[in-house]
Amino acid sequence: MDKEEYLQTYKDCLRDAESSALSSAVITRSAPYSAQLSAQVSPCAWLDVSAPFQITVTMADGGKQIVQDRSLHFSQASVADIARLLDQVVVTECRLGFCHRPAFSPAQFLTNREGLCEKCYIVRLGIV
Ligand SMILES: [Zn+2]
């Protein structure tokens, strides 16, 4: 595929995605420790037709988790798939004993948060 073909494919995908309710669908749910989660299709899933289907789950207090389904592509996916992948996300209590905020479970998906909530993670990084 040369550059022109690639750009045309990219533009076609962008146009298709804009008209697709799937690319803009947002699914929300409550989780343990008062967490509020919202999930959307990650842009890479509809910008690159060969990419696996992927959602980005955002926690209201901060923090994101990527969930992929390697057996699925955007063109075959539905809003129900967003909900299905969101249901795989496990929320635990931040692993620091004094902190009772929600955190994404490190046992579930690849993450560099190691069971810390977003606030404790940022503090550990020394950013604040
Ligand atoms: Zn914490």
What can you tell me about this protein's structure?
The protein is α+β, with helices and mostly antiparallel strands and 128 residues long. It has one domain (3-125). 33% of the residues lie in helices and 24% in strands. The protein has helices at residues 3-19, 21-24, 43-47, 79-86, 118-125; strands spanning 27-31, 35-41, 53-59, 64-69, 91-93, 102-104. Strands 1-2-3-4 form a 4-stranded antiparallel β-sheet. Strands 5-6 form a two-stranded antiparallel sheet. β5 (91-93) and β6 (102-104) form a beta hairpin. It is elongated. The chain starts with a helix and ends with a helix. The relative contact order is 0.15. The mean pLDDT is 90. Bound molecules: zinc ion (ZN). Zinc ion (ZN) is lined by residues 94, 96, 99, 101, 116-117, 119-120.
Number of strands: 6
Order of H and E elements: HHEEHEEHEEH
Q: Quick one: overall form?
A: elongated
Low-pLDDT runs of 5+ residues are none
Bound molecules: zinc ion
The assigned structural class equals: alpha+beta
- Distance between the terminal alpha carbons, to the nearest Å? 46 Å
For the biggest β-sheet, the strand order reads 1-2-3-4
Bin the helical content.
25-40%
| DSSP helical segment count | 5
> How would you characterize the largest beta sheet?
4 strands, antiparallel
Strand content: 15-25%
Mean residue pLDDT? 90
- Return the domain count: 1
CA-atom Rg in angstroms: 17 Å
